[in-house]
Amino acid sequence: xxxxxxxxxxxLARWEVLLVIAIIGVGIWSTTLSPxxxxxxxxxxxxxxxxxxxxxxxxxxxxxIAGEIDISVASILAVSVVCFSQFYDAGLNVWLAxxxxxxxxxxxxxxxxxxxxxxxxxSLAITLGTLAAYQGLAYVILPGEGVAAFPESVTxxxxxxxHVELPIALIVLVVFAVALGFxxxxxRFGRYLYTIGxxxxxxxxxxxxxxxxxxxxxxxxxxxxxxxxxxxxxxFGSARADAGQGSLLDxxxxxxxxxxxxxxxxxxMLGVFLALVLVAELRNGMQLANISGDTQNIVIGVLLLxxxxxxxxxxxxxxxxxxxxxxxxxxxxNATASAGLAIEPETEVKGR
Amino acid sequence: xxxxxxxxGGLAICLVFAAALVTALTATAGQEAAGHKGQNYKIFLVPxxxxxxxxxxxxxxxxxxxxxxGDTVIYNGPTEAVAAKQVPFINTAAxxxxxxxxxxxxxxxxxxxxxxxxxxxxxxxxxxxxxxARDARTIFVSPPxxxxxxxxQVEWLGSQIGYKGEIAILSATPTAANQNTWIKxxxxxxxxxxxxxxxxxxxxxxxxxxxxxAKETQALLQGYPNLKGIISPTTVGVAAAAQxxxxxxxxxxxxxxxLGLPNEMRKYIKAGCAKKVGLWNERDxxxxxxxxxxYVLDGKLTxxxxxxxxxxxxxxxxxxxSDGNRPVVVLGDPLVFTKANVDKFNF
Lengths: 352, 347
Prior knowledge:
The complex is a heterodimer of chains A (352) and B (347).
Chain A: H1 2-12, H2 15-33, H3 40-45, H4 51-65, H5 73-89, H6 94-118, H7 123-141, E1 147-148, H8 152-159, E2 161-162, E3 166-167, H9 168-186, H10 188-198, H11 200-205, H12 210-236, E4 238-239, H13 248-257, H14 269-288, H15 293-319, H16 328-338, H17 346-350
Antiparallel strand pairs in A: 1-4, 2-3
Helix pairs in contact in A: 2-14, 4-9, 4-10, 4-12, 4-13, 4-14, 5-6, 5-7, 5-12, 6-7, 6-12, 8-12, 9-10, 10-12, 13-14
Chain B: H1 2-34, E1 42-46, H2 53-69, E2 72-75, H3 83-95, E3 100-103, H4 112-120, E4 124-128, E5 139-142, H5 146-161, E6 165-171, H6 177-190, E7 198-205, H7 210-223, E8 227-232, H8 235-247, E9 255-258, H9 262-271, E10 277-279, H10 282-298, E11 308-310, E12 316-322, E13 325-330, E14 335-337
Helix pairs in contact in B: 2-10, 3-4, 5-6, 7-8, 8-9
């Protein structure tokens, strides 16, 4: 009986479970706000306008778990979108143009990765720089009014529907959530990320190829921005240099609200996905109630702030040495001692 | 365990916070909605962004029209001028079974798919200010026609400098479509006999950024010592140019005109640094757009050229072809702000 209760308590205390409860709560509340909320078409379409944000957030989650940040994702999206449109306009086969756009995005991510991972420069400063540089690059590649009119074979990824009602963008989002969730939680690469995010030095001593993993993680973030670009193109049917502008706040919100520790070392793909659902649902509910856009920003901002503050608070209390969970420093000892791939540091305990 | 409990408490607090905030805010929103009893049509007005004077005025005008017509206008949009952020507002308007959506688009193409989906669910689409792809709306409500905006500014400047001398244009970005169209019509006007004495020596680009616009103005003053006048068809540019003229004490030597907001230009107009500045009445603009939407819903306007209707206090309007764009309803001639009348306007 006691173990059952304990199990229930543990389950309830998981961040993801709480997010689900929050989603249900906001759902009920939105239903009372507007009669148009709890309608199948609305619920199915809830995530479609935010799919490109979610895809960028998935990539960013990897970076943050590894203890870094990448604020250039929206600019990478813009460059990949305008590159695709220029390749396509130049007469390149549409699928090749898509691949080229993706390659550009991955390449730009790689540049971030090399600067951060190999030259060991601070990721916030580097990606702040590339945020501006890539944005400028997008304007150089495609100045002016932009390009529209792309074939439906491409736009269906963002704007199409399967069997009339199921948005294909939602399918894309879920497929990537599952695939990336697998990479993060069930592969060696994923474990490396948690280790590096918890303590980079310890990871290095433990034989983790730190530099290579850090480059890879930024490349992955760029790649996901490219994928997000494809969905963006499909949904909005327009390629302009300002594509994705203004979406960074939402991307970071999804990651942090999803329970990813902003200082690295913990977080889950499911959490990020659920946070995206929560934000999309909250926005949709407020919009259906015709609440002003300013107010919506306040609500989302407060939600994000509270999540960060409380995350930090718990960490501070932990650091003062409350019992029950081993502290980071002890984990380092462990990791160095066992020096292998099988290290399962604290991340396992606090993260997923 | 303590950490998890804290997190649990944390999320709970988050939610209570958010819920309390929004409940408080919806309470007020609800009251507002309840004010419009006996409504006829439900019309959503989605501006490029909210919190900006001109769009707030558009919203007020539209609500004024709605009151006269017995409709309800809901004014809401994103807080940044980004197309991707307008789309959720279009979607939720359609979801609320909007009868019509009036939109000023940030990107004519990016909002088109969402507008078409809304139209498929029965909403009529009217664009104003920032037009959308032609097949995504019924009618475009234009401020003064592009040709009029171009010609008027040449006249405003010409009348100040005796129709002769070197002049320059201070534009926004080299890629801004509306700017380029207006400049094209200015050049056409300058070929007319009346304006032949005016010589366009330079088109500068201030990127709709106050710093760049000020720098470009200074460069114009230094590079063209015989410069008699500047036209800046952008609210950012004209304000920056006026400030530079004032600082450099060149207000009497170089005349300035353009498209400017009365509130931003008031002190320069009064100081004589920009004797004539024009713009259209933003409240009337929203008012007209709401009338157009109403008559489209009534079936009186289908987008056929030549259809006429009475737009309340603005009088009769006709659906026309304007500068090659169709179908268009034009607001009318621009307003001119001078020392004598600028205090009457508040936007």
